[in-house]
Amino acid sequence: MKNAIALALFASTALVSAASAEGIKEFRIGILGGENAQDRMNSYQCLADYTTEALGVETKLFAPADYNGVIQGLLGGTIDMAWLGASSYAATFIQDPEAVEPVLIKVNVDGSIGYHSIGFARKDAAIASLDDMQGKVFGFGDPNSTSGYLIPSIEIPQYKEGITMDSGDYFGEVKFTGGHEQTIVAVNNGDIDGGVTWADGQGNWEDGYNSGALRKAVDAGLVDMNDLVQIWKSAVIPEGPIVLRKSLPADVKAKMTQLVDELHENDADCAYGVAAGETLGFQPVTHDTYVSIVEARKAKMKN
After folding, report:
1. Which architecture, in CATH terms, is 2-110+239-302?
2. Is the keyword Ribonucleoprotein assigned to this protein (predicted)?
3. In this predicted model, what pLDDT tens digit does every residue of 100-123 receive, in sequence order?
């Protein structure tokens, strides 16, 4: 009943209809990796329902196995909208500056629009910092992840002389797990010694912070944060943007931007799932927010 009321509210406030979404036969939303595919689909189903109501066309959800699947979908025109990480947006922009446009950014509970890459280990592993990770297995999520690889690969070597991202130099092995959830589970199970994931860094550690992959893992019952300890934290990273394909009809882009912008106000539960935790919703953003990330990504490509 609650979702039905919210759907009706969206339809009436946005004043949308099937006839107004001209030029498209369906709308396709890509979901970046971070947790298993079914959980991702479940978290976004409410948004898909609202999108179908708003545009009057079928909405399909796509949860590729890795980040590149969403990137290539946007570049190839088989995905119309996605919430990208800053590095994934940079990868998309570098390959085709005209493919997508950033429209909205997640807002934290305190009004900020940044988050952190968080290094963590099991509390019983006697690892308190990166100093204790020498010779051990360090897990990263996905090569196209901002917090799961790009930023750690730049900032962690600055932590201490001799640290590189090559297996056998400082860390015994540098391993890609495939995504944030996989990293969290691997550390929790003792399959790897430490790893990195993302969080807003606000609220309580015991809750997995207010939002992010740790919060989603706690909500899913995958981990007890009391079993884990933070061993490293990056500088603030700009939240990734919700992007739309530039070639979409203007009315479709306007309606989808409005729908997501008002999602927290109209259905807080749906917004919680889409935004990976407690937030204030979304606010407008432009490419300018990601210029530094684009340059960092280009620099990594040259190396």
Report:
1. 3-Layer(aba) Sandwich (3.40)
2. no
3. 999 999 999 999 999 999 999 999
Is the Cβ–Cβ distance between 220 and 106 less than 8 Å?
A: no
d(CA 198, CA 216): 11
- Report which of 112, 264, 121, 137 is spatially closest to residue 192, judged by C-alpha positions: 137
Predicted local distance difference test score (pLDDT) of residue 23: 81
8 Å CB contact between 163 and 157: yes
Give pLDDT, residue 17. Answer: 40
Q: Boundaries of CATH 3.40.190.10 in the chain?
A: 2-110+239-302, 114-237
Q: Which of 39, 45, 97, 89 is nearest to 67 (CA)?
A: 89
The per-residue b/e assignment along 219-230, b for 16 or more CB within 10 angstroms, e otherwise, is beebbebeebbb
Are the beta carbons of 239 and 113 closer than 8 angstroms?
A: yes
Q: How many CA atoms lie within 13 A of 190 on its CB side?
A: 5
pLDDT at 34: 62
**Could you say which residues of the chain have pLDDT below 50?**
1-20
How is domain 114-237 classified at the CATH fold level? D-Maltodextrin-Binding Protein; domain 2 (3.40.190)
Q: What is the pLDDT of residue 302?
A: 81
Residue 89 burial (CB < 10 Å; 0-12/13-18/19+)?
buried
